[in-house]
Design brief:
Three copies of one chain form a homotrimer.
Chain A (H helix, E strand, L loop, with lengths): L1 E8 L5 E4 L1 H11 L5 E6 L6 E5 L5 H12 L16 H9 L3 E7 L2 E2 L6 E6 L6 E10 L1
Antiparallel strand pairs in A: 1-8, 2-7, 3-5, 3-8, 4-7, 5-6
Chain lengths: 137, 137, 137
């Protein structure tokens, strides 16, 4: 298994960050033309990984849906940091902190409109780690 | 890694389609009695894969829940195709487009009531691809 | 692939049960200092696996969010067992019954605040099976 950690700046607002560039660079080096599975993992308790289209508004739509499904208000038992932060700790229950996708011939075999994205609603941690691992098949 | 793509007709209504027949056929050929992991992946930006019971109403219940959690109305920034289509692009954020399940002795080791299902709320794409991959352990 | 099944008592109330002890024991024996992927799978149609922080209220927060997103009332087509049980069958559509996380040097490489948890809203099945599998890389 080849594995590495990349640092992603998500900033101080809820963000969906496209990991395409980091993933492509890693897979072209780690897979070297082989087939296998790519594992994307965020080792944080207040972020998730999603496969969605970016650049056409769906990233904003996902954040708006999460604002409604997990409101950033005072309802949460887990209460510290910015107001409503407890909802960030529930996020990984719905948007899991990992994704597994196929690698074929050394390239991630996503659909045309799919992008691997870090989903980070936590405004208190502007820099995140993402672990990329390639398991040859 | 053994891998193949199957075509699934999901039709022009939101649908939960049981992939059991396609999965069993693939795994019996690809795994040949071995242990490993089965990876099910839909390379589309408006569909997901879920493991639920089928045939007792939970497929309809899942679609009804998604209608409520991600309403097919005009709220979405991503706006093209059928009315409310933007919600189909948020779906993979909640119902991820992949599943990984164990294979034991050449058979998918699901629980009695579990089925691998394609979840497709997108009414504009009646035919979908699903990639099945077996990684021997 | 090394694989085993552990039994987890979740009791007769909705529960988020930390699997850390079982996972650590399995991985230390199965991985023996190697890298790879850990697959956690619950072979039941009314439970999921999540990676969240435990011990600070987020387990209760996740259950409260699920109560709101999937209410235990009479709306569900799938109707048997305790009142509202149909929602337990939709749960795995949102909280999938599997998780894959990296193993490095024979240890699960979770973040500081992450725990692998069984999420079980089904009050009719107090004992659950969880399959742990290690795929060396």
């Amino acid at each position: 298994m080849h594995t590495t950690v990349v640092e992603i700046v998500t900033g101080r607002r809820p963000a969906v960050v496209d990991l395409g560039r980091e993933v492509d660079a890693f897979v072209s080096e780690a897979a070297r033309g082989l087939d296998g599975l790519l594992h994307v993992f965020v080792p944080h308790a207040t972020a998730g990984v999603a496969v969605i289209e970016t650049g056409a508004g769906s990233d904003a739509d996902l954040l708006a849906a999460l604002d409604r499904l997990l409101p950033a208000d005072q309802r949460w038992v887990h209460r510290h940091g910015s107001p409503g932060h407890g909802r960030d700790h529930v996020l990984p229950g719905l948007v899991a902190p990992f994704v597994v996708v196929p690698v074929l011939g050394g390239r991630v075999a996503l659909g045309t409109w799919q992008s691997l994205c870090l989903v980070d609603t936590n405004v208190d941690n502007p820099v995140r780690q993402v672990r990329l691992s390639f398991l040859p098949g």
